[in-house]
Specification:
Helix content is 25%, strand content 28%. By secondary structure, the chain is of the alpha/beta class. A nine-stranded mixed sheet has the order 5-6-2-1-7-8-9-13-10, sandwiched between helices. Helix 1 crosses helix 4 and helix 2 packs parallel to helix 3.
């Protein structure tokens, strides 16, 4: 098993450098023994998935060094780029030494179901795996309208156990942790979860026309059907933190052989 005492952790997110969830995760990683560096988007970039877009001036992307009061002595940067871009930059020579682990979050709102494809929080963790680093996406199930005082401490309560699981896995392991937004005393046992079919909310898109032209209008509603038992959405609803191992993009061999077998069989 790898030891956090020997590892450097890049802490990032998609909610932006000013998110208290980012700072809480960095504090938790430092308490676990990691050498911590913080680099997060300069603005909220939720929903960007694995995008490596950045705001470029020629071949430059601007960095803004920051000081975080709760993390004295920890290097921190606001980056004019998306979370996966930050991970790429760290791997391509920016950070020396390069990180061994990428911890992404704590996201305001759960990242559940197959909709994690669109999450910038998850995108950063999956990008870490491309370089053989372990990645952890961390999310707090605050609902669509986050409360004024999210229970960050609930995440920090289960984080040490999850970090042990992460470090026990092989290089390139990616985990997604979702924690109910409840006091620590109301948190259930950590459970492994399957991904739900999509996610916790439904989004409907309507085209509307007016004097200013055509536009797509989005609306959000909670899922109308009960979640499937054993999925991340169902377990979160029951008060359990959920842990899911995610697999990065890869190839599936045999596409031509399968097509040829089907053609000959027909």
């Amino acid at each position: 098993m790898a030891s956090s005492r020997r590892l450097r952790a890049l802490i990032t997110n998609d909610d932006g450098i000013d998110s208290p969830g980012l700072w809480a995760l960095a504090e938790g990683a430092r308490e676990a023994g990691f050498d911590v560096v913080v680099a997060a988007p300069h603005v909220d970039t939720s929903g960007v998935g694995g995008s490596v877009l950045s705001v470029r001036d020629g071949n430059r992307t601007r960095l803004h060094p920051r000081e975080i009061d709760s993390l004295p002595g920890v290097a921190a940067y606001a980056v004019e780029g998306h979370p996966a871009y930050i991970v790429h930059a760290a791997a391509r020579g920016w950070l020396d030494p390069a990180p061994d682990v990428v911890l992404s979050g704590i996201n305001l709102g759960s990242n559940v179901g197959r909709a994690v494809l669109h999450s910038g929080t998850v995108g950063a963790a999956l990008t870490a795996s491309l370089y053989g680093w372990r990645g952890l996406a961390v999310s707090l199930d605050t609902g669509w309208q986050p409360p004024e005082q999210p229970h960050w401490e609930a995440v920090l309560h289960v984080l040490p156990e999850v970090l042990d699981v992460l470090l026990a896995g092989p290089e390139g392991t990616v985990l997604s942790l979702n924690v109910p937004d409840r006091p620590v005393g109301e948190i259930g046992e950590l459970r492994e979860a399957r991904l739900a079919t999509f996610g916790a909310v439904q989004i409907r898109m309507d085209q509307r026309s007016g004097d200013d032209g055509h536009a797509l209008h989005s609306g959000v509603s909670e899922m109308s059907t009960p979640p499937e038992p054993g999925t991340d959405t169902a377990l979160l609803l029951d008060g359990h933190p959920t842990l899911t191992e995610l697999v990065s993009i890869s190839e599936r061999p045999g596409v031509l052989a399968g097509a040829r077998r089907n053609r000959h069989a027909g």
